[in-house]
Amino acid sequence: MLVKCSSIAAIQFLKQKYEVQMKPCHLAYLSALKDDQQYPAARCDKAYDVCMYGKTALSGVESMIRANDNVRARIAVDMLNAALILLKKEGIRYERAQLDAHKKSRWSDSHLTPKGMTIMEEIFAKCDPSIYRVQMTDFPDYNQFVV
Description:
By secondary structure, the chain is mainly α. The protein contains eight helices and two strands; from the N terminus they run ααααααααββ.
């Protein structure tokens, strides 16, 4: 309930309202940290230009912190090595995304989708190739077919 509060007044009100009903160990747990360390509303009240729009930003920040753990693992890291590590990690991420993008699809045997294959089969089922003449011209960059 306290985490969902949108102002310090609401936090204080709920604390006073339920303080008498709480067990001493629960009260000690809540009192162990300062309000601005526990509740978003108290953190936002530290400065006039801080606004509380949502609570999803923290998870994004945490994932970015974990993403670069090996860069921050050392007490002192020289800037060149840190940049090289970051570039290497980005290269690995890029290659992984590239491999995912080029994975074989279920239509890897053909460049056509299943519907395209059906249309092509219907067209060629009615076509008699013996009445057509095909001429191929080989160019350096491509082949040209004339039917």
